[in-house]
Amino acid sequence: MTGDPQLYDYVPYRGRDRIVWPDGKSVAVWVAPNLEYYEIDPPAHPKRKAWGRPHPDVMGYAHRDHSNRVSHWRMADVMSKHGFPGSVSLSVALCQHHPEVVADAQARDWEFFSHGIYNTRYAYDMSEEQERAIIEDSVATVREATGQTIRGWLAPALTHTPRTFDLIAEYGLDYTCDLYHDDQVQQVKTKSGNLVSIPYSLEVNDHYGFFIYNMSPREYADTLVRQYERLAEEGGTVMCIPLHAYLIGQPHRIGPFEEALRHIAADGRAWLTKAGDIVDAWRANPPQASLGEDA
Amino acid sequence: MSLDPAYIDYPKRRHGYDHDLYDWSAIHQRKPLIWPGDRSVALWVCVSLEWFPITPTDTPFRAPGHMQTAYPDYRHYTARDYGNRVGVYRLLDAFAKAGIRASFATNGAIAERYPELVADIMREGHEIIAHSTDMNGTIASGLPIEDERALIAQSLNMLERITGLHPQGWLSIARSQSWNTPDLLREAGLRYCCDWVNDELPYRFNNGLINLPLNHELSDRQIITVQQHSADSYAQQIGDAFDWLAGEKAGRMLPLHLTPYIMGLPYRISALEKLLCDLAARPQCWVATGEAIVDAWEAQQ
Asked: Which chain A residues are closer than 8 Å to B8 by Cβ?
């Protein structure tokens, strides 16, 4: 063990080939709503507690349940109104618990990728067999519920094993949202398959905005606009807006958020698209430098 | 080391919830509510009246806002009690000015210790709901059921002795319940609780208890104390929330959870006064207590 997880080569930002997105757009913008199910009484994991209080953690559980009763539709309607499709980070058990929410996303022609079975089941310390089981479960569950074959992965609650990327690549997945080392798509080194990382922009995730940086709703909307303006100016970039309906869909936040979407949609430099399309466009003409020295 | 093989078994993976407390329902699929006077946004102000003993017991956990230093923590004891002596009267005056009738979630100890305050609140037309005994009266799983039953009964008795009324509503400290709480509240004759923040309208638990959601994200504790925003920013955020809800074209609720020692400070109160006068004067606004909202909701089910 060298301390380097051996996931990618170092590729400096300066001097990269310029990527031009379809129709000459300068920044690919994708929105990633997390459609999640958190269990009220999950089994204990030795490395991470699911809830801060003894079960039921009423406030924690109910806050997240707000997504599936109220705020999913509020968030989704604002996205649809301004022409932003969703690429859904899905707790696949939501297909069983609340298929109505999954069907709404499907009806909007959104893309689904796996965010694990539940956001209260963590991958740390899983055996290879267990991790294969959650990948196979994800593929089968989403296919049965939506007809889509998942192409991407965001680990449940961002929990991994050292095998995760090799396994999802082996199962034919195309992209991971788990790596935060770049503002562009990058190749990930895996034993087999062909896996890339797509920026998921943890820093402008609504959870970070509201609970790490304690932003007001208008400050968060301004942050999205600034992030967008800079990435559009640099060009060839990817901007992700990762969301949770129970946060962005609160009544004091949704109005300012809509203004940020309105700004981005009206600007003209944004390619409003889905994760899989970004990966395809990048692969169709991959900049040489981003493939790294071994390519 | 690997995980227990059962870690990837999911016995409650099924249609609906992984519990039987209440059923799933999406807000936009329900029959639209109309509030009295054909108003679209019910403005519900709920004030927590809290007495923090200087000797926290931490069973089962220490309430938010409780003592922080070694004993005796005069700093926090008195800064919290300021709310019960001074801050709450600023709130009462602000409510009178804006024509607000509010719900006061009241520790039993407040009624026992400060009956003059409770009499003033009732005289001005506000509702008293139960909020445990004092700020040591927290609830979570692990608290023996007999202790929890006794805690709820004691809190109701303390209020009833002073007000002469059996409260209809209940707010748990930190909205924290045990598995037993919904049934114990029902057994104690309570009509509604305010603990579950998963909805924006009242709904009914399977045991008959109504939940009237008191949004914690819109509370002064969350916005001002936790997120450290100014009172002006708070007022702007609440104004934005009202605007959004009024645009949803079906009966909605805007719950404002206030804390006298937070919002009742001299440098914050005027922002609240202006906000309440502005909201209450809007044509879509129906100002209501928790009980009035539950009544109006129940009449339309």
From this structure: 117, 121, 126, 130, 133-134
CB contact under 8 A, A69 and B25: yes
**How many angstroms away from the CA of A132 is the closest CA of chain B?**
11
Vertex B271: Cα angle to B265 and B276 (nearest 5): 110
Q: Searching chain B, which residue's CA lies closest to the CA of residue A91? A: B13
B136: Cβ contacts below 8 Å, ≥ 6 apart = B53, B55, B56, B57, B59, B63
Chain A: residue whose CA lies nearest to B222:
A214
Task: For residue B195, give every residue at least 6 positions away whose Cβ sits within 8 Å of its Cβ, in sequence order, or none.
Answer: A58, A59, A62, B170, B171, B172, B175, B176, B177, B181, B211, B214
What ipTM, to 2 d.p.? Answer: 0.97
Query: A214 and B228: CB-CB below 8 Å?
Result: yes
Query: Measured between alpha carbons, how far is A91 from A42 in angstroms, rounded to an integer?
Result: 14
Cβ distance B60 to A59 less than 8 Å, yes or no, reads no
Please list the pLDDT of chain B residue by residue as tens digits (301 residues): 679 999 999 999 999 999 999 999 999 999 999 999 999 999 999 999 999 999 999 999 999 999 999 999 999 999 999 999 999 999 999 999 999 999 999 999 999 999 999 999 999 999 999 999 999 999 999 999 999 999 999 999 999 999 999 999 999 999 999 999 999 999 999 999 999 999 999 999 999 999 999 999 999 999 999 999 999 999 999 999 999 999 998 999 999 999 999 999 999 999 999 999 999 999 999 999 999 999 999 999 9
